[in-house]
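Table 4 source record.
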Amino acid sequence: MRLTTSQTLFEEMLLRIQTGAWPVGQAIPSERKLIQEMGVSRIALREALFMLRSLGVLDTGHGRKSIVRQVGTDLLERILPLVCALEPASSYGQVFEVRLALEVPAAGLAALRRTSANLDRLEELANEYARQDFVAGHYPRTDLEFHLQVAQSTQNPLITTLLNVISRHVISVQAESWGTGVPIAWDRAKRAHFSIVEAIRSQDADRARVEMEAHLRYTAALVQPPGTAIGKTSQPG
């Protein structure tokens, strides 16, 4: 698809922000200078600037120049879920692969960085999940809260943001999988949560990663159709 002039300008200016050519906190060149430099119309330029302001990377007050904004996790939490919502429905395998890549190393970081408050909350959620009864077709939000708390325990807000982004897909595919025969998985998940908490309590990063991966893979094996391979890397021939 051919880009319009304003879209091309948007991409060019966004690249300047990403590369630091236009530093955070500083004003970008005036409209007159940009029009002369880029050889475009004022209408096309203003459309591109509007797109950047809508994205949240430019801040323009009344009578002031456009300033490059610091992009924080709050902006990502608004934009990324929208991107995911507009994408075609993700399969369980796709969601699982993202979780595996994100949550396994996160568990190791959580073991090394968790605070006493993080640990208290993890234990509280593990106990709350253990007290719940299995209901076919009902995916308990407590499980997702537990995994989000592990992410928060890394003290890296980007990890929590990314897990939050895919949480809609996690709930969707898990709810569909909660059918007959899953009480076994429910009981195993309870034990897995306690094992993960124990590893994090002991600040054993290796064990935390192993426990988290085993937990995710076991659940995935129950949900995926027989013979489906997910989350496996290809081996050299």
